[in-house]
Design brief:
The protein is an alpha+beta fold. It has 3 helices and 2 strands; from the N terminus they run H-E-H-E-H. Helix 2 links the parallel strand 1 and strand 2.
């Protein structure tokens, strides 16, 4: 059985400093929906690309209004 940990922190600096690349099975998050928070989606995409295992998954809730921008930033 593997150890499981839930962390509550400012995700970008914490992840970049504390997690090895390709070491995470899943990221589950619900970022703020308003447009002024769109830059967070780019950071989330960077963290997911670097820290998730090749078989890992990112689950992120998003409102519909900014969905095209969210998808673009996660790409």
């Amino acid at each position: 059985m593997s150890e499981q940990t839930i962390v509550c922190a400012d995700f970008y600096p914490w992840c970049m400093e504390n997690l090895k690349d390709n070491s995470i099975d899943a990221v589950i998050t619900d970022p703020p929906y308003p447009g002024e928070y769109l830059p967070l989606w780019s950071l989330l995409g960077e963290v997911a690309a670097r820290k998730l295992k090749p078989s890992g998954m990112l689950i992120a809730y998003s409102g519909n209004y900014n969905l095209p921008a969210v998808i673009s930033r996660l790409s």
